[in-house]
Amino acid sequence: MKSHLRKPKIAEKFLILAILALLFEWFLPHIVFAQEQIELYAQGPAKFILISGTDENTRPAYSLPENENKKPKIIKYTTITAYSSTVDQCDSTPFITANGTFVHDGVVAANFLPFGTKIKIPELFGDKVFSVEDRMNEKYHYRVDIWMTTRELAKQLGVKYVKIEVY
């Protein structure tokens, strides 16, 4: 005797797969190795500093590892400029960096360094640590652009050619 069961169509298979994926997402626990992820991002043991703000823009900021003898990987001279969060200097979302974070003190834009790279600019800012979280126009390849709270502060910095330390 022949069975009258039909084979499921592709759309039905996709729907079943989507439902299984949602059930998996909702009911099975997610295991996150947070400490390993943080140390990977911070390139060593991380200290957390909470930046004031609302819940959606409160985020951890990272500092360099506690080791005082940490030597920079690269020391190079480059052009330093500054920018602020205005549509004419950025895109239509001036308060969100290219890396998806909210702008904050210590953000820099640099096309020649990967996101998350820590740098210092000792001649201008001493031991302050900056993090590469934004990008610039493609024509500015070897330049570092520092985020400032206002256009006036950015203009005050001007254009400088100084040494940076890359960690």
Descriptive report:
With 167 residues, the chain is of the alpha+beta class. It has a domain at 68-166: Barwin-like endoglucanases. It contains four helices and eight strands, in the order ααβββββαββαβ. It has helices spanning 10-27, 34-42, 122-125, 151-157, and strands at residues 49-50, 60-61, 74-83, 107-110, 118-120, 129-134, 143-147, 160-166. The strands form two sheets. Strands 3-7-4-6-5-8 form a six-stranded mixed barrel. It has a two-stranded antiparallel sheet with strand order 1-2. The longest helix is centred in the first third of the chain and has 18 residues, at 10-27. The chain is elongated and about 80 Å long.
SSE order and pairing:
Layout: H1 10-27, H2 34-42, E1 49-50, E2 60-61, E3 74-83, E4 107-110, E5 118-120, H3 122-125, E6 129-134, E7 143-147, H4 151-157, E8 160-166
Parallel strand pairs: 3-7, 4-6
Antiparallel strand pairs: 1-2, 3-8, 4-7, 5-6, 5-8
Give a nutshell description of this structure.
With 167 residues, this protein is of the alpha+beta class. It has helices at residues 10-27, 34-42, 122-125, 151-157, and strands at 49-50, 60-61, 74-83, 107-110, 118-120, 129-134, 143-147, 160-166.
Largest sheet, in brief, is: 6 strands, mixed, barrel
Cα distance spanning the termini: 74 Å
**Shape assignment:** elongated
**Strand line-up of the largest beta sheet:** 3-7-4-6-5-8
Topology-level CATH name of the domain at 68-166 = Barwin-like endoglucanases
Radius of gyration: 23 Å
Please trace the helix and strand order, writing H or E for each element.
Answer: HHEEEEEHEEHE
CATH H-level superfamily of the domain at 68-166? RlpA-like domain
Derived from helix and strand composition plus strand pairing, the structural class reads alpha+beta
Regions with little confidence, pLDDT below 50 for 5+ residues: 31-60
Give the number of DSSP strands: 8
CATH class of the domain at 68-166: Mainly Beta
CATH architecture descriptor of the domain at 68-166: Beta Barrel
Strand content: 15-25%
Give the rounded overall mean pLDDT.
78
